[in-house]
């Protein structure tokens, strides 16, 4: 029996060794593989799905049911009119600078309404899209701790009009927001991209490592004067996006008292919840010998796909690696339908031999990739992703996961020969990405044959071994960069850049964004300055390099820095990624 047991053990060892060698060779010889394919180093898609376990829940919708009932009754009450209307500030209890106003008119009419600003160019106006007799107005852009004046203009089909003024009193800002110092040093309202009716605010997307000693990191929007005109009391970390339907998507907590984030919530600017995706917060996947630590939740980005599904950056849930996996979540079921593990796409040595960065945050896990953005290119059904710790931006086919091109700051010789055909070659001098963030596309370049313009926030920090040009500039400045990529010839040239002239004072070694606002304007977020104690958001003209808006934020609180800055409309008609990204 003893000899038989030893023989069985020997056979098993040989089989495992053969399987391990085959898995390694299979991964090395193919640039892509199915998400279900695993090697000795890659966790299976099935295990990741089970570990994260996303699903739709109705907890928050049900919690709002009494408010929904009250508002429905008001809409049905035909006795309400201009002189006796129903108004409610912060109807859902999580958006203090929002309100609703409900009333009826005897004849079909359109209502235009304005929250009167405190200075020229800060009044916010919206108009109903259709004529009707029932009017349920969403009033946004109120000031905090203020008796806001709202002017209404009712226009009937025959051209006659009626006006009405109402006042809406709001509460003080919470201490965590009131303590933030917002200093606007430049505000050229005529040149800023403020949208129809000045409805676009500059949003500060907060982030934090959860915990009792961290700031209550409420995301908020400011006007051209720097006044906070919208915020939510739901904690938000990293994810603050507008969906195609104009709703917000935020990464938040099922309970504010929790030390962890575990829900993606779709809501509107009044705080009404439409959908909640719940994640398994107990899926620790801890490293050997470490304390329990949650690392497979959403960490940097979520993007909406054309069919309404969501693709999110996560970790694979294993004990070794973090922040190198994407999951696709069905908007119908809330379940994970696809897993893309970057260890299946890139050379094995990139993650098995990675030593460029280390952090106690990851409790011994290896942060070899550190994906910080996803952009979906609908023109060819592909994904453009940014990897901070590999200093690379790459494009892959969404369905097949085949690599289309790679913008890499590594020396060409650092890549296995089978990958070199994907590397973009520079024509002229370019800023090579160093620890970069937030890769998106200039929407005006979408659909151009074999050509694409890509924007990044280039932190300009050399992570690991890089090209000599990046090593020389590393740490001296950060900048927003736009490249033009010829996807057929695999060449890249630089279109524009902004930030170098600001020098080391605006060097942000982590986080940041560079957003497209218009043909000329961009919004850049130097989100981590002075060791995370300050942030500087600038709107600039790409042609003249003129600043049209400049705001400095200080006294942000622990972990309350500005992860990204967005320019969103409070009244979006249709969201377009790249413009309102």
UniProtKB/TrEMBL annotation:
Residue span, Arylsulfotransferase N-terminal domain: 87-171
Coiled-coil positions: none
TM spans (from-to): none
Domain of life: Bacteria
InterPro entries, alphabetized: Arylsulfate_ST (IPR053143), Arylsulfotran_N (IPR035391), Arylsulfotransferase_bact (IPR010262), ASST_N_sf (IPR038477), Quino_amine_DH_bsu (IPR011044)
Name of the protein in its database record: Aryl-sulfate sulfotransferase
Organism: Lactiplantibacillus brownii
């Amino acid at each position: 029996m003893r000899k038989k047991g030893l023989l069985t053990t020997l056979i098993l060892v040989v089989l495992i060794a053969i399987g391990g060698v085959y898995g390694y060779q299979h991964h090395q010889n193919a640039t892509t593989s199915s998400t279900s394919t695993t090697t000795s180093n890659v966790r299976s898609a099935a295990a990741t799905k089970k570990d994260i376990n996303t699903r739709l829940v109705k907890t928050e919708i049900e919690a709002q049911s009494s408010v929904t009932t009250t508002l429905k009754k008001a809409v049905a009450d035909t006795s309400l009119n201009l002189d006796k209307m129903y108004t409610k500030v912060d109807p859902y209890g999580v958006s203090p600078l929002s309100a609703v106003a409900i009333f009826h008119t005897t004849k079909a009419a359109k209502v235009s309404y304005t929250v009167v600003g405190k200075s020229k160019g800060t009044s916010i106006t919206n108009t109903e899209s259709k004529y009707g007799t029932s009017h349920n107005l969403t009033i946004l852009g109120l000031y905090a701790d203020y008796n806001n004046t709202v002017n209404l203009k009712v226009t009937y089909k025959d051209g006659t009009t009626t006006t009405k003024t109402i006042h809406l009193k709001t509460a003080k800002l919470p201490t965590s927001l009131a303590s933030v110092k917002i200093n606007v040093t430049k505000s050229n309202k005529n040149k800023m991209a403020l949208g129809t009716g000045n409805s676009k605010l500059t949003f500060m997307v907060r982030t934090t490592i959860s915990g009792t000693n961290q700031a209550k990191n409420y995301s908020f929007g400011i006007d051209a004067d720097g006044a906070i005109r919208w915020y939510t009391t739901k904690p938000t970390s990293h994810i603050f996006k507008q969906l195609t339907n104009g709703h917000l998507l935020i990464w938040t907590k099922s309970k504010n008292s929790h030390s962890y984030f575990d829900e993606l919530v779709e809501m509107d600017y009044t705080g009404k919840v439409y959908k909640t995706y719940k994640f398994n917060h107990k899926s620790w996947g801890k490293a050997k010998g470490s304390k329990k630590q949650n690392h497979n939740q959403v960490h940097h980005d979520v993007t909406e796909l054309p069919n309404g599904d969501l693709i999110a950056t996560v970790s694979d849930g294993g004990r070794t690696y973090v922040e190198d996996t994407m999951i696709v979540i069905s908007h119908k079921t809330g379940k994970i339908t696809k897993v893309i593990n970057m260890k299946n796409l890139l050379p094995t040595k990139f993650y098995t031999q990675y030593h460029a960065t280390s952090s106690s945050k990851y409790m011994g896990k290896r942060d070899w990739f550190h994906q910080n953005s996803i952009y979906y290119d609908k023109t060819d059904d592909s994904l453009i992703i940014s990897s901070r710790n590999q200093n690379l931006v790459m494009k892959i086919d969404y369905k097949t996961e085949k690599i289309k091109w790679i913008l890499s700051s590594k020396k060409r010789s650092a890549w296995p020969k089978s990958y070199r055909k994907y590397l973009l070659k520079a024509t002229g001098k370019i800023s090579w990405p160093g620890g970069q963030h937030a890769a998106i596309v200039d929407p005006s370049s979408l659909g151009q044959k074999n050509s694409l313009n890509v924007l990044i926030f280039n932190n300009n920090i050399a992570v690991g071994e890089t090209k000599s040009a990046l090593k020389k500039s590393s740490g001296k400045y950060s900048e927003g960069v736009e490249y033009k990529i010829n996807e057929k010839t695999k060449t890249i040239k630089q279109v524009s850049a902004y930030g170098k002239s600001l020098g080391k004072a605006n060097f942000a070694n982590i986080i940041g964004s560079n957003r497209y606002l218009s043909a000329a304007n961009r919004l850049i977020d130097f989100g981590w300055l002075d060791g995370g104690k300050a942030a500087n958001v600038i709107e600039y003209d790409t042609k003249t390099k003129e600043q049209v808006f400049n705001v400095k934020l200080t006294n942000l609180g622990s972990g309350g820095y500005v992860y990204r800055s967005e320019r969103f409309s409070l009244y979006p008609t249709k969201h377009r990624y790249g413009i309102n990204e």
